Amino acid sequence: MTETTLRQIPFSDAEGTAKTLDDYGSDVVLVVNVASKCGLTPQYEQLEQLQREYGDRGFSVVGFPCNQFMGQEPGSMEQILEFCSTTYGVTFPVNGKVKVNGRNAHELYKALKQTSDAGGKAGRVEWNFEKFLVSADGSVQRFRPKQKPDAPEIVSAIEDALVAAGR
Questions:
Q1: d(Cα 156, Cα 142) in Å, to the nearest integer?
Q2: Which residues are designated catalytic?
Q3: 112-137 pLDDT tens trace
Q4: Cα–Cα dist 79/71, whole Å
Q5: What residue segments make up the domains of the chain, in order of their start?
Q6: Residues 35, 39, 40, CA angle at the centre, nearest 5°?
Q7: Was domain 7-160 assigned CATH 3.40.30.10?
Q8: Rg for the chain (alpha carbons), in Å?
Q9: Which end of the chain is more exposed for a tag (fewer CB within 10 A), N or C?
Q10: What is the DSSP letter of 147?
Q11: Apex CA 35: angle with CA 162 and CA 111, to 5°?
Q12: CB neighbour list of residue 108: distance below 8 Å, 6 or more residues apart
């Protein structure tokens, strides 16, 4: 049996269909746990800007709603998608709700959390809008929630990953 790579770990999209990161056809993916009722929710706007700027070069933001942080994503998938579309014009994929921490954390997040941030800290997702940049080769870079999606270190990491992927 072959080892499943991070990009091949299955999850459910917003309609409940099984997907993997590879299914989005993007070489570089920014995985983000999102929430509609969080002080960081305006990051959706910057995430969408990244999607529009780099989407045609083999990049995609991939959102995963999570209700683990003070119940800040309580809505149904229909409500979440409506909010994302009407409030922030989100065009990137927003998938089914997941747990990112604890015994019932999704397998994708169990794998992602093994990555250390720039300060050398791995482990638990701290809050909504933690970002994991997954390159074409499966390498991962981690950015904490308060780092805005358009921060120079994130933009530079995206551009470097796209160049490395030949995009």
A1: 13
A2: 38
A3: 999 999 999 999 999 999 999 999 99
A4: 15
A5: 7-160
A6: 65
A7: yes
A8: 15
A9: N
A10: S
A11: 55
A12: 6, 9, 11, 21, 31, 64, 98
